[in-house]
Amino acid sequence: MQPSREAQLSFFKEAETFLEDPIVSFLRRDLGINGLTTLHKNSFLSLTHLIELDLFDNELDHLPDSIFDDLDNLQYLRLHKNQIEEVANDLLLKLRNLQSFDISNNRIKQLPPQLFKGNPKLIVLHISRNLVKTVSQTLFSKLELLEDLDFSNNKIGRFPKFLFTDLKNLKRLQLAENRSDYLPTGLFDSLPNLEYLNFRKNHISSISDNKLFSALQSLKSLQLTSNHFRRIQTKDFENLFSLQELHLGQNFISELPENSFETNISLKKLFLLSNNLEELEEKSFNGLDNLTFLLISNNILKTIHADIFFYTPNLEKLDLDSNKFHFLPSKSLDYLDNWVSIKLAKNPWHCDCSILYLAL
């Protein structure tokens, strides 16, 4: 006898009837974009074989405490784009096999300290675009398999020093667009496998300790755009040997000490646009033999050292647009044997014989 294509599931206190493939229905429930406003506590009763549950883009503002208790085998749970304001401490407790959880784009103001204590297999966790102001130091305890954490677009002022201690396998961390003005020393010390760190659009004005990032030996991309940096210290990025992209644009940096990037031997792209840089010394880019892209537009640069690009022999794209240059040292660009694009527009050039070489 063929299994019926008609399946019934009680989302509210009333039953809804719909057609689904019986095998897909057995493993997955897709209830996204359905205008749901309420879920009954027994909505998913006895669905022990369910692997994937989509509830995204509805109008849910509340989740009954025990609503997911029967979903022993659930691996993927998506609740993003709802209006959820709070979650119970034990909401996910029975989901021992959960691997991916997305509750971004809601109205959550507080996360219970032990919310994820029953989810040791979590790999992907997205909590972005909520209203969280404070976070408990134990929130991510024992999530040793976690690889992708997105905590961006909240209202967090301070991140506890030991918040990420157990996240040994984390590869991607997004903390952008919060309200943090301080990063405690040791915050990233337990993240040896981290490859991508985004701290864009926060309020930090300096790196608290030269060793803040030093444990991130696998880091490939560091995003610090749109903060309040005024100066870079010589050892701020020391020992980031794997770093390939460094974003420092849209800050207030007025000084770049020599040898600031000396140990960033893998760096390929450096973004310094929209700062307050007035001059660059000879060894400002010392150590950047592999740099191919340098963006320093929209600063107030008036001069650079004649030999500054000696230290960037593989540079292909250079952007010096929108600065205050009257001229460049005649030999400064001679080191760029591999150049593909050099942008020099929107500078107040002195149009005399001293800059004829720029026309070549």
TrEMBL record:
Q: Which PROSITE patterns match?
A: LRR
Keyword annotations for this protein, in alphabetical order, are:
Leucine-rich repeat, Repeat, Signal
Keyword Signal assigned:
yes
Q: Which Pfam families match?
A: LRR_5 (PF13306), LRR_8 (PF13855)
Source organism, top-level taxon = Eukaryota
GO CC terms: extracellular matrix; extracellular space
> What name does the UniProt record give this protein?
Uncharacterized protein
